[in-house]
Amino acid sequence: MNFALQGVCVATFDEAVFEHRPPQLEKSTLILSMARSEAALQALTAAEERGVIVLNSPRALQKAQRTDFQQWFAESGHAAKHWHTSELTADRKATLLFPLWWKRNNTATTSANDVQFVEHLAQLDAILSEYTNEDALVMEHIDGQLVKFYGVVGTNFFHAEPHSPKGFSKFGHEQHNHHKDLALSSPMWKQILRAMHTSATQVAQQSGFSIYGGDAILRQDGTFVFIDFNDFPSFSACLPEASAAIVQHSLSLLAK
Asked: How high is the pLDDT of residue 171?
């Protein structure tokens, strides 16, 4: 399924043109955007306020922070333990188990320093000293298999697969997780997939990220924990299926 075959006129343009408010933006009824610049988000917010459907919502993107996602993960029953750095008293630090993760309290990981793997207390103290005024979280490290997942709200599409050591790694953090072959056709994996889809949909609806992706850690016992949730990922592992789902979701919104 694609927009052209459904009789929908499509215009594409680069993120840089948002600074000049392209005329296509004014005429659009629906916008699919992966833009992140301040100018783009301002233009998209203005379009959304005029009644244009924007996926994903720029207001949702600007509002949600990592602490929000941790709350939504907890409500879904699949959250890792975490502490705000402002809560790290000497007594609290004495109870921490290493390794763990230090993560900036932003919406998306955009640089290698946004997320850091911490192996011991001295390293944590050095990071806290370097980023004294940084709004950040300290999160437990979950031992298990890293799983990448992708979905589109309002459709049956949901794709999840174990991350391969040979797979794409944006900042190399995946090396700290176990990698093993999983029987993806097994009843256990299918059950995990259904549970992950249900919980991810819940988080997507709470965040406003109807087109989403993320990371989870699958424990040996089949339980899982969400560790990241992303707005409009690349869908490189499942592009044809994801594209069809995005079109389906978009057309359903236009039909309302």
From this structure: 44
Mean pLDDT score, 139-165: 92
Domains along the sequence of the chain with CATH: 4-63 (no CATH), 81-140 (3.30.1490.20), 145-239+249-254 (3.30.470)
pTM: 0.89
pLDDT of residue 165: 60
Give residue 220's pLDDT: 84
Q: What is the 3-state secondary structure (H, E, C) of the chain?
A: CCCHHHCCCCCCCCHHHHHHCCHHHHHCCEEECCCCCHHHHHHHHHHHHCCCEEECCHHHHHHCCHHHHHHHHHHHCCECCEEEHHHCCHHHHHHCCCCEEEEECCCCCCCHHHEEEECCHHHHHHHHHHCCCCCEEEEECCCCEEEEEEEECCCCCEEEEECCCCCCCCCCHHHHCECCCCCCCCHHHHHHHHHHHHHHHHHHHHHCCCEEEEEEEECCCCCEEEEEEEECCCCCCCHHHHHHHHHHHHHHHHCC
